[in-house]
What we know:
It is a single chain. By secondary structure, the chain is an alpha+beta fold. It folds into 3 domains: 1-44, Cytochrome C Oxidase, Chain J (Irregular), CATH 4.10.91.20; 55-131 and 182-349, Catalase HpII,  Chain A, domain 1, CATH 2.40.180.10; 133-165 and 418-484, Hemocyanin, N-terminal domain, CATH 1.20.1370. 27% of the residues lie in helices and 15% in strands. The chain is built from 12 helices and 10 strands. Strands 1, 2, 3, 4, 5, 6, 7, 8, 9 and 10 form a 10-stranded antiparallel beta sheet that branches. Strand 3 (107-115) and strand 4 (118-125) form a beta hairpin. The radius of gyration is 25 Å and the shape is globular. The N and C termini lie far apart (70 Å). The model is unreliable at 480-484 (pLDDT under 50). It is an enzyme of class 1 (oxidoreductase). Heme binds at residue 335. Residues 5-390 form the Catalase core domain. The active site is at residues 52, 125.
Amino acid sequence: MSTLTTTFGIPxxxxxxxxxxxxxxxxxxxxxxLIEKLAHxxxxxxxxxxxxxxxxxxxxxxxxxxDVSAWTKAAFLNRIGKETEVFLRFSxxxxxxGSADAERDPRGFALKxxxxxxxxxxxxxxxxVFFVRDPMKFPDFIHxxxxxxxxxxxxxxxxxxxxxxxxxxxxxxxxLFSDRGTPRGYRHMDGFGSHTFxxxxxxGERFWIKYHFKTNQGIQNFTGDQAVxxxxxxxxxxxxxxxxxxxxxxxxxxxxxxxIMPEAEADAYGFDPFDLTKVWRHKDYPLIxxxxxxxxxxxxxxxAEVEQAAFSPANVVPGIGFSPDKMLQGRxxxxxxxxxxxxxxxxxxxxxxxxxxxxxxxxxxxxxxxFDGNGGGTPNYQPNxxxxxxxxxxxxxxxxxxxxxxxxxxxxxxNDDHTQAGDLFRLMDDDARERLxxxxxxxxxxxxxxIQRRQLGHFEKADPAYAAGVxxxxxxxxxxxxxx
Length: 484
């Protein structure tokens, strides 16, 4: 049996009793073991994520099933059958660390590929769209999903006031209040990259793409009542289900697809293909299967590997890039900045975050919690005369043509925020529509009547039956004109 030590390897002679002046105390400051235990305990909880605070994760493998070299030169995609280690973190978005897995909420679907060219983070959700299209509105939106600063309670008034004044939310809120807002578990839902990204091939040609992950377990959702019941019976049901299934050898898996748009076609498409509140029509850009994703290994320590896992869409590899998607552009900064605040400037050195299949050669030095060799005595600047790493123009992206004057453009002018939400409503069968409208009325009915009327105006523009069904449940006439 090993001897207990302090963090610094000093053997501990007594871990049961504090060092005191006599049997009744007081405690002496020289009890360094007590001080270390208390000080560490006070710091065991790092700040929780502002969003995606409650989550679960697992390791697995991504396997290529189609030749995609015509569209991208990414090395981890360059051969059918090639496998890459991954880590996938699922989460609820708005809930706090102790919230229930069954809450009505989007689900995070954040995937880290440990490729031979460095880590590639694909940070998505279980929905193909989002509530807002401009990052300026993201903090405002999230504030409405959190707690009222007056009461410290969740507030339907805040939620629906924002929704009704922001018509671009209509598509995503229609998904949120459908059965898809309460998935039965992480294994039984699809995932999406959501944003538009770019693939670049060896010839320097750019293609716009969207990622889709289709569950092989089949989609399963709770009804609203079932979700409420599960939240009371087992608030950690999705976390338990994921861990248990992998432990039992029932490895969850997804088929991986992309939609591909040639770069030149973006300008002529019927709407902005970089708008995060919109989906690309599958008849225009059909799904192309490219791979298979399987989760087959649970973390050995939840805190070290799930709680400290950090993803950023800024982490891309050669052959994969960004797009003019405004929300994506905002996230390129915001995610890494959040990690530096929450975990420290050296969060990339943590085992779950550092590359597993690629070397790291950088000039980053120092900072709190630098626990490797800190570059030793090698130069910490570039250019230098001592053989330090250098940039390589082979990995530069081709130029992206941009145009327009620098200004603050009203993102709502000229945008159709109602058609795709109406299309989704009409795709649902009668029972699904009824549940959607029941769920909306249950929440919207807690907001002031003036906000109810304003929101009904948006439903009316999406589909008159949508507005009429919700209005009937609210006993409010759908006469409002939506705010633009």
